[in-house]
């Protein structure tokens, strides 16, 4: 097993190094003279991730940028400004910032108005780049009945999110859910979905689905499962509702429906199995929801609006002090802003995970989720946590929708972890019984080879267990090389609940023990302890095995896939 590392290198020319070492305030260009060349301008994106065109906030403008380059050395700092027209600075004058991301949450923004962010970069010699300006973000707040907050309804005949555009035949009332996803009052006739679903070299791309059943069959991309397509894990042209959509052949989506539109990945990511670049959800409702409503799950046909942001009980979160290396909530929020598309059972779900929305591999997205829930339990303000928490809670709601509609993620612990805690997290903050009780409703356990009652709902539970004497002088049904000295030891086995023959008492016998499982579970395990959710989790072997793992595995990436997770564990686990 090997881990891919990404290194960011700053390469200085000899002239630049000499100038920096000379103590002078002006660095040199390759010709040895003073640097008179300004940096080149880059690209400015509205929002804290990929460019957004609309937002619901009436107090915050955020932006990020890249591509500002100075030929003679590094960028020293940036200045950014906000205006109500391209290039204007009437909302915020030029303000210094060191990082290529910024936000101002003290603004008063008007509904229906588009605001623009401008950025300029300075090099070490004080030269300033040309100004680059974003394409603007429009404030769109939903108003009208249904508890929508008052005001005039927002009407639109076209909506866009994450590169997907839906065009309607007429205008409809629209708005945003708490996490920023769109709703529209329907039924609606969609006359165009961009990018269009089409066939390229025999491959159907950019498919859309309505109310997906989470059984593995899908309508997104005909190459989704590659060589592993089999049984129900197949592309179904009948489920791709985007085929042939046009003015003469509109897609009619009824109220009470979720439309998921995907964009295929045309140049495969070398470290990802996914065939999708991104996906976005449009929810069609019969009446406007409350202004702070969470989106209902995308799976299944029940689109009841059950939860609101105002229900979130931040008091259920911890207030740990951040440890060295802890990221900020603002830097993590973009990882949870897009839909985590996961309505596919078992390990093969990684082919469905859009690369711009979430990591495809179970270890990686479980570790990412662990970062989010752990930072949520640190002493940042609720406002600082807000966007990140909204994304995490929405993922929990969606995961519960998948589970209740028949999905499960058991046995393959390197691929199938990370689904249980998002539900417990969301359920705890929302006081939602179905998510709070997921550990009791879907209990874990193992009753021996051939038993029909072996639980395989979640990867962490189906692979952690206590070594037991299963008959006279026999331990773990004779599998794994266990003896009396192992009795009651918290242990791990890949596929333990379904293929017990894979169990092995030797610590390094199965490389997945060290490369891809518990090293990604630290964040969720520690967060569950902070929030007092061990009883709700209802599988003690998971927590005891994590203690054993962290005590046994030496420091490094095999112990903690995200290094600061180990620091947090070593700092706070003795207290919890």
Topology:
Elements: H1 14-21, E1 43-46, E2 54-55, E3 61-66, E4 75-83, E5 92-97, E6 101-104, E7 114-123, E8 132-133, E9 137-139, E10 154-161, E11 164-176, E12 182-185, E13 188-194, E14 198-200, E15 203-205, E16 208-210, E17 251-253, E18 257-264, E19 276-285, H2 329-332, H3 362-376, H4 382-404, H5 420-430, H6 433-436, H7 438-441, H8 459-463, E20 464-466, E21 469-471, E22 474-475, E23 490-492, H9 512-515, H10 522-530, H11 534-537, H12 540-552, H13 563-572
Parallel strand pairs: 2-9, 12-19
Antiparallel strand pairs: 1-3, 3-6, 4-5, 4-7, 7-8, 7-9, 10-11, 11-12, 11-13, 13-17, 14-15, 16-18, 18-19, 20-23, 21-22
Helix pairs in contact: 3-4, 3-10, 4-5
Structure description:
By secondary structure, the chain is an alpha+beta fold. It has three domains: 36-139, Immunoglobulin-like (Sandwich); 154-285, no CATH class; 361-576, no CATH class. The chain is built from 13 helices and 23 strands. The strands form six sheets. Strands 10, 11, 12, 13, 16, 17, 18 and 19 form an eight-stranded mixed β-sheet that branches. Strands 2, 4, 5, 7, 8 and 9 form a six-stranded mixed β-sheet that branches. Strands 1-3-6 form a three-stranded antiparallel β-sheet, with no helix packed on it. The radius of gyration is 26 Å and the shape is globular. It starts with 13 loop residues before the first helix and ends with a helix.
